[in-house]
Design brief:
The chain is an alpha/beta fold and 358 residues long. It folds into 2 domains: 1-102 and 263-358, 3-Layer(aba) Sandwich (Isopropylmalate Dehydrogenase); 120-254, Isopropylmalate Dehydrogenase (3-Layer(aba) Sandwich), CATH 3.40.718.10. 41% of the residues lie in helices and 18% in strands. The chain is built from 12 helices and 12 strands. The strands form 2 sheets. A 10-stranded mixed β-sheet has the order 2-1-3-12-11-4-5-10-8-9, with helices on both faces. The chain has a two-stranded antiparallel sheet with strand order 6-7. The model has no long low-confidence stretch (mean pLDDT 96).
Length: 358
């Protein structure tokens, strides 16, 4: 039996609740695929500020660097919205990404047929939608220097290098080779010099992938195309802030932020997390949707630990649970039975047992 060390960062709000279900499902899968997981919890975000005065304390920094993979819940607490930057939960998240060097964020968006009516879009527009957003994660406005705010103004710096763009573009093209061989590169090259560099660099990388079709579009058109013609998109690659916005917009396709996972990859341990926030308004009530966390655990197995069979089993179990009518309140139609967070985790484990017994 192979053993892996997983650094678990439950974080804030609903983070601990959804990660508890992700751990349960991983353990269940591990029993069938001869995998053992040592989960070690460490603080990050608001809980770390309240306990230790630092949103990314040294203990957590050391633990994630030595783990085989990192599983993150969510960060965020309205009580710290006006705190100094160094005390904000989001600062801990940015520091975590930088410490791990995870420069490519992968966000798959697949519409479950049974949930086609959960989206406000027409079902026929969602037929066979399966796309992958590849977001550059450690550059751009979120990390650029100088930055700061004064009494009468503020500044943020948007900066990219050829090297930063090249490495994330290669991730996108490699992913496209395993899909429909189409890359959609998103920028604002009619206005921004950084986007002009982005476009030129992606075009240069594309020359190494003659079997993949490349298309460039502006971010405003990309936002419209995501909802007007999502089936035309295979792999979408873009910079940090554009990717942050577009990937959240893509949640409208599946009907809920609670369904979507992500993987952040670089040179060291990968970081895996649902794309939703901490949702403090429902924290502790046992109603949060754990599917995004559970499918993030599947991505951890696939991309982080190279255990595709266990990952496939979890993904299939989730799809079967949804097809069988399992619903948390965010994806339930009026009058449908609703499962709580733990009950949804249990239903997926039941389906997992049926998957691996076949």
């Amino acid at each position: 039996m192979k053993t892996y060390s997983i650094a678990v960062l439950p974080g804030d709000g609903i983070g601990p609740e959804v990660l508890a279900e992700a751990e349960r499902v991983m353990r269940a899968a591990g029993e069938h695929f001869a995998l053992r997981f040592d989960f070690h919890n460490h603080p990050i975000g608001a809980i770390a500020v309240h306990q230790l005065g630092d949103p990314f304390p040294n203990e957590t920094r050391g633990a994630v660097s030595h783990a085989d993979a990192v599983l993150l819940g969510a960060v965020g607490d309205p009580s710290l919205d006006n705190a100094p930057r160094e005390q904000r939960p989001e600062t801990g998240l940015l520091a975590l990404r930088a410490a791990l060097g995870v420069y490519a964020n992968l966000r798959p968006v697949t519409v479950y047929p049974a949930l086609a009516d959960a989206s406000p879009l027409k079902p026929e527009r969602l037929r066979d939608v399966s796309l992958l957003i590849v977001r550059e994660l450690t550059g751009g406005l979120y990390y650029g220097q100088p930055r700061g705010r004064g009494v009468d103004g503020a500044v943020n710096t948007l900066r990219y290098t050829v090297g930063e763009v090249t490495r994330v573009a290669r991730i996108a093209f490699e992913a496209a080779r395993g899909r429909r061989r189409r890359v959609l590169s998103v920028d604002k090259a009619n206005v921004l010099e950084t986007s002009q560099l982005w476009r030129d660099t992606v075009t240069t990388v594309a020359a190494d992938y003659p079997d993949v079709t490349l298309e460039h579009i502006y971010v405003d058109y990309a936002a419209m195309r995501l909802v007007a013609d999502p089936g035309s998109i295979d792999v979408l690659v873009t910079e940090n802030m554009f990717g942050d916005i577009l990937s959240d917009e893509a949640a409208v396709l599946v009907g809920s932020l609670g369904l979507l996972p992500s993987a952040s990859l670089g040179a060291g341990p990968g970081l895996f997390e649902p794309i939703h926030g901490s949702a403090p308004g429902i924290a502790g009530r046992g109603v949060a949707n754990p599917i995004g966390a559970i499918t993030s655990a599947a991505m951890l197995l696939r991309q982080g630990l190279r255990q595709p069979e266990a990952a496939d089993a979890i993904d299939e179990a989730v799809a079967l649970a949804i097809a069988d009518g399992a619903r948390t309140r965010d994806i339930a139609r009026p009058g449908e039975p609703v499962l709580g967070t733990q009950a949804m985790g249990s239903r997926i484990i039941e389906m997992l047992e049926s998957v691996v017994e076949v």
